[in-house]
Amino acid sequence: PNAALRGHCALDGEGRRLVADAVDRGGMSARGVHRALCVARTIADLAGEEEVSAMRLAEALQYRAYEARHSASR
Length: 74
Prior knowledge:
Blueprint: H1 2-8, H2 13-24, H3 30-46, H4 54-72
Helix pairs in contact: 2-4, 3-4
Domain Mg chelatase-related protein C-terminal: 2-64
Protein name: Mg chelatase-related protein C-terminal domain-containing protein
InterPro entries: Mg_chelat-rel_C
């Protein structure tokens, strides 16, 4: 599954930087990164895009951050 995801979610330099920031600053785990990449791939698919852009990855990371903030308050 991970190899298949990497093939469908190849990241450019900006995307790799976003992931590194999420891990370094936000404490995101490898599992969290995997989930964010899956969400980014879905967003790109819904938009009819072949590639997962840094913009789509940033959107997915924002959803993950929102989810983390709001699930902690439950």
